[in-house]
């Protein structure tokens, strides 16, 4: 039996450097977002925003490494409904690109909790909290992550969060890297509710082919998109609507998972 194909989506959260010395087995592919390529040299793909500064991009590439931007991720995300529904921020864009291009069995996130608390918001210091900007496509980061998890589930892929940060905007189940090849993950997705959400997306018709949805903001009904977010959250019944807290072991994310639940990212929470 072959091991599952795993894509690690590595973001720029403060904990990202913890992944620097993680093992990289043959079934693991590393996709970095924007500045996260600096975390470790053996990444496979860099996905960066179209306006990512040239001087922050790698000057040289190792054999097999690839860099992709809007020319790749816009058509990929369109195949999953487009930016208005997926959410206009790179954490989700990279996930949809990976689902489209790499078709993994497991999509594992690290450094993408999007909480931005304290003075250090990124591994390189203070950065821009892009997902928290006023944007009609980002009214609920939890709902956007539920949507990604539901659509990944439709193609046989499980989404997990490797973070040990106490809070996250991702509703994915928590996991440890060493568990991914041996531990089954269930998502608890309500397929009928997900289909209802997809039908509502089709009814609204908010597809912007070039991805530049910000030129069409007046065409979008923010209240309708908020109701759509609720539909996606209902497709993942255990997903909270606010910040998801993890009070589990603070062991390194490569260690053994202990008390995390697996259904829709639910886990023990306090407060």
Layout of helices and strands:
Blueprint: E1 6-10, E2 28-33, E3 45-47, E4 66-68, H1 70-78, H2 83-86, H3 90-101, E5 106-110, H4 141-154, E6 158-161, E7 167-168, H5 191-204, H6 222-234, E8 244-245
Parallel strand pairs: 1-2, 1-5, 2-3, 3-4, 5-6
Antiparallel strand pairs: 7-8
Helix pairs in contact: 1-3, 3-4, 4-6, 5-6
Question: Can you characterise this structure?
Answer:
It is a single chain. The chain has helices at 70-78, 83-86, 90-101, 141-154, 191-204, 222-234; strands spanning 6-10, 28-33, 45-47, 66-68, 106-110, 158-161, 167-168, 244-245. It has 271 residues and is an alpha/beta fold. The chain has one domain. α4 links the parallel β5 and β6 (158-161). Residues 244-271 are annotated as: Disordered. Residues 251-263 have a biased composition (Polar residues).
Structural class: alpha/beta
- Output the number of helix runs: 6
Radius of gyration: 17 Å
Q: List unreliable stretches of 5+ residues.
A: 122-126, 242-251, 256-271
Mean pLDDT: 85
Region (Disordered): 244-271
Biased composition (Polar residues): 251-263
């Amino acid at each position: 039996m072959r091991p599952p194909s795993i894509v690690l989506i590595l973001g720029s959260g403060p904990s990202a450097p913890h992944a620097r010395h993680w093992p990289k087995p043959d079934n693991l592919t590393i996709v970095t977002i924007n500045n996260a390529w600096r975390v470790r040299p053996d990444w496979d793909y860099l996905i960066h925003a179209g306006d990512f500064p040239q001087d922050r991009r790698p000057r040289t590439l190792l054999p097999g490494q690839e860099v992709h931007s809007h020319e790749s991720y816009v058509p990929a995300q369109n195949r999953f409904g487009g930016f208005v529904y997926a959410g206009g921020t790179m954490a989700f864009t990279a996930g949809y690109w990976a689902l489209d291009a790499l078709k993994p069995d497991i999509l594992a996130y690290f450094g993408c909790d999007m909480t931005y608390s304290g003075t250090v918001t990124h591994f390189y210091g203070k950065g821009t909290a892009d997902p928290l900007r006023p944007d009609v496509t980002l009214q609920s980061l939890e709902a956007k992550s539920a949507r990604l998890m539901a659509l990944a589930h439709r193609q046989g892929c499980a989404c997990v969060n490797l973070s040990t940060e106490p809070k996250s905007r991702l509703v994915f189940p928590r996991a440890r890297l060493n568990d991914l090849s041996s531990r089954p993950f269930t998502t608890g997705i309500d397929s009928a509710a997900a289909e209802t959400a997809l039908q509502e997306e089709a009814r609204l018709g908010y597809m912007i082919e070039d991805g530049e949805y910000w030129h069409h903001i007046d065409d979008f009904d923010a209240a309708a998109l908020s109701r759509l977010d609720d539909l996606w959250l209902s497709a993942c019944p255990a997903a909270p609507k606010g910040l998801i807290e993890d009070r589990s072991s603070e062991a390194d994310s490569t260690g053994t998972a202990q008390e995390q639940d697996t259904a829709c990212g639910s886990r023990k929470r306090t407060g």
